[in-house]
Design a protein that fits this description.
Number of helices: 4
Structural class: alpha+beta
Shape: elongated
Number of strands: 9
């Protein structure tokens, strides 16, 4: 029974980002401008009308384009999933590189912001 318990705990510690903490790959983009914007990510290209919002799936980043050249054309970038990285290193050090490798393979070392508001009133 004891080896089974150790194996179960080791499995749970293997991938904190994939199992417990998770990663956010969905960003709700709010269009707070007067123009319809184009939002592109690895899941496709979407149009968002003024004063509307849309959830966008992305793992690498989201590019926003506005037909008005005077408005910004930002790219929403991902940031490190610090909680998953911490738990992969601190208790996960017992299992070596395995926890970090599992989270890297499942793309849970980074996360996208939960929401983003695009604004341009020109």
């Amino acid at each position: 029974m004891k080896p089974f318990a150790v194996l179960a705990i080791a499995t749970l510690l293997t991938a904190c980002g994939a199992i417990g903490i998770g990663s956010n790959h969905e960003t709700i983009v709010y269009n707070n401008s007067t123009e319809t914007i184009s939002v592109s990510s690895d899941s496709g290209i979407f149009k968002i009308k003024p004063a509307d919002k849309l959830p966008v799936q992305a793992t690498d980043g989201i590019a926003i384009k506005n037909p008005n050249d005077n408005c910004p054309q930002p790219i929403i970038t991902r940031r490190p999933n610090s909680a998953a990285i911490f738990f992969d290193i601190f208790p996960g050090i017992i299992l070596g590189i395995v926890p970090l490798a599992v989270d890297a393979i499942t793309n849970n070392l980074y996360k996208m912001p939960k929401k983003y508001t695009y604004a341009c009133m020109e």
